[in-house]
Amino acid sequence: MVSNIGCNIGKFIDESCETVRGNSLKQTLYATAVATVATTAPYIAKPIFDSYPLLTTLAFSVNLICLALLAKNAIQWSNVTIYLLAVPIIGMFGIKWNPESPTPVYQAQKYEKIGSLEYVREANGSAQPVLTIKTDDPYDKGYAYGFLTAPQVRYIYESVFPPLIVFAQLRAGDVKGEWLDKKIDGYTIPEHYLTEMKGLKDGVNDWFEKNEDPWRLTSKQVLQIHCFTDTYKMGKEPFIGKKAFQYLWNVLFGDMGCSTMVIKRDEQMVVARNMDWPGLGMGELAITRVDLLQDGSQVRSHIYPGVISVATAIKIKDDDLKLAAIVNECSERSIGSGIPCGLWVRACIETCNTVDEVKQFVASQRKTASSFHLTVADGQNACNFQMHPRKDVYHLSRSLNDRGHLVVTNHFIDPATQQPIEGGLIPGTSGIRYHTVCKTIENNPHLPLEEVTAQALQGVNRSLTLSSHYYAFGPKKPGIQIVTANAWAAEKLS
Questions:
Q1: What is the CATH number for 357?
Q2: pTM value?
Q3: Is residue 260 domain-resident?
């Protein structure tokens, strides 16, 4: 079980590891000038911008990029331009461009007898990097993980998360970028996960020291990565105007949102999902992390370098798929305290073996830091928990409907009426994707389940879909298919 004892997270932050990285004067002045023009233009020439909304989008896009550059020196302009602007915009015209990752490939290697990293070929022919951890010690878990993936961790921490954090700050109205640092102390992170984070940081830094590279990862950075999505689900009026900002956000990211389904026919059950995320080229860096547990089972989680939290995971024992757990974002609520979502879900999949055990886990644990969907399935039953930390009764649950399926996108649904809950539908395509998946399942009752799920996932495939997953329970050896990409991942499903 997850410990409910809070930790003094401030002690975990080793300020001595902080490095100062400044912008060059020329770069800063240039970005300031462009950002100023882009910010003021929509107001100075309001009639023109009102007539041509795309000009507003362009102006605020330039503004966001410049502000991001000012805030984080490490941001790469090319990544922001390609992955956050070009791919979504040309996707609006039906062009499914999947740019290749600029990051280095993994090297097959081992760290002592604790961990190994190798490529394993999936049934669909794709080769997936698999990291296997063979220890129960949390520090050693993190150390092996960090040491074996250090170059990719650097890419994630330098080129992926800085712009995402900045954009999240701007969207929430945190102009000064202060919320994250102020609220980190309010979160409850179980001690063993803090220890694993420390091991991760040390493993990464020892790899760079061994290779005579001055770059270092800090404890503060690791904490920020694991807390920023929970923090920025709370928001206020953005400083550049809510209407204009939301317009820009919907143009670029309105299609973004994970879609999950569970289908049961006779003795077979399948679970499938698309994971959408503005990945900035990190799609091909995804790895399958395998943790060997004391009871002989193993947890396989689909993660990105430098992150120990979980959004998609399964538990296997004796070659039998026991449990699948999948996270979807939902209506945006955050309380600024509690256990960060991804760590809460990891504790759940490590602790539980059945849907009934998950129900007990949900009922017994302290509140999560923010709202999210948790969908679990064990081959016999499936359940979706709609976690809502602001409510006294903080979760609602839905099970398989009378037609044998359960569909989850990004809004709350009343279990009694099966209709969206008022105030629970977030902007974007959540409702459209929900009905698209439902209709695909209902209109194809005789197609094999793997074909139905492939059609459904491809029907809601988006320019920000980084991975697609298919898990099959049943009397045969469990069927597992994972495909990853920088965009339109579901197109690769067989």
A1: 3.60.60.10
A2: 0.84
A3: yes
